[in-house]
Amino acid sequence: MEITLNLPVKEWYRNSTxxxxxxxxxxxxxxxxxxxxxxxxxxxxxxxxxxxxxxSRGYESYFGKLLMRLTVLSSxxxxxxxxxxxxxxxxYGNRSHVRKSDVAWHVAVILINPCLILIDHGHxxxxxxxxxxxxxxxxxxxxxxxxxxxxxxxLSLNHKQMSAYYAPAFFSHLLGNCLxxxxxxxxxLKLGLVVVGTFSIIWxxxxxxxxxxxxxxxxxxxxxxxxxxxxxANFWCTTSVLIKWKKLFTTQTLKNLSLAATILTCLPSMVxxxxxxxxxGFLYGLLNGSFAFYLFSFQVHEKSILLPLLPASLLVMELxxxxxxxxxxxxxxxxxxxxxxxxIAPYMxxxxxxxxxxxxxxxxxxxxxxHSAVLHSLLTFMYLCSIILHIVYLTIRPxxxxxxxxxxxxxxxxxxxxxxxxxxxxxxxxxxxxQYTLRDNEKKSN
Length: 446
Fold this sequence. Notes:
Blueprint: H1 2-6, H2 21-24, H3 30-46, H4 62-91, H5 100-111, H6 114-123, H7 127-142, H8 146-157, H9 167-178, H10 184-202, H11 210-220, H12 235-239, H13 245-248, H14 251-275, H15 279-296, H16 306-314, H17 320-333, H18 335-340, H19 344-358, H20 373-395, H21 405-445
Helix pairs in contact: 3-4, 4-5, 4-7, 7-8, 8-10, 9-14, 9-15, 14-15, 14-21, 15-16, 15-21, 16-17, 17-21, 20-21
């Protein structure tokens, strides 16, 4: 906010004496910068010291924190909440047999996301804006408004580059739909023009030169930070206990490896949607594609688990029990980060609130895993381990030789559950193709 308020637009992403990028530089796309500018105007009016050039660095006050929280709440109210209500209207629009209590419960599950609340209101990350645009885009796709969906998803991409986690699902579903139109080439062209037009408007201040564009792009791709930073429950960090990826390979090789692994993991979901696009398959594709990025892409942060959580929450009526498991381990995967930021009390409070919400009397509990005594015992054992690890992490100091032992165990446990869930949801998505094929065959026989 300090930078966007006090420097010209062309210098927002440029390193200078006034804008030290190594201190707290902009590292998100231009739409985040515009949002920072408008929120900065609000803070400047009520608390000018909090956004003044240089003087605001290290500035801290109760009133300043209150204003920051209000900027997050206003973003929730203006973007995320309306998008969720739009989704619910579209999703349940043609379902006359659905109970109102189930709809209300679904809305509550999406809105009361403890991971999103802790990250946005604890770190002021404003993920509610990019996720809100994404939910709006999803709702537009489900209501057959593909051009509107393209605009909204472009806004999401230009607010947080992590929204690219959803790009394979949007691309494959929209392409699959276009291929089934009378004039596929025209449909693809229309979508392409909308995407180029939206990006051009947002990036307009930086389109005057190639160097200006590169300055922004280099800030969006933090390759210099390495394959990962903190302990995150993805493939690279979890397996680094046994395989020292950073020592064995160069950064360029690791970039190629992570790219190849991410594409290969996304492909089954993308192929299914190109071959047999459907609304439900699209939601599963969003979940599977975002999980592929979380598990295998380069430079994943703990908060990136928010991206698979969003489509999982949209599918919660079908994935009720798997979603409960996912939410538990998503929260647990961020537990070390939240402990460092002294957010243990909010963590416990939100976990208790969500527990009460999930076990509300009288609601349906669909979407169970396939019945298996061995699998059920394994999941129960891992769940108990996670509960015990909470206590161990807070009360016992790790050995001096292995200072991050508990973090490594937590990440391994969470990664194991995420991997199990990915196999399950990918199989669920491919079963949709079989269901639609059987229905088509029945219609032809009749």
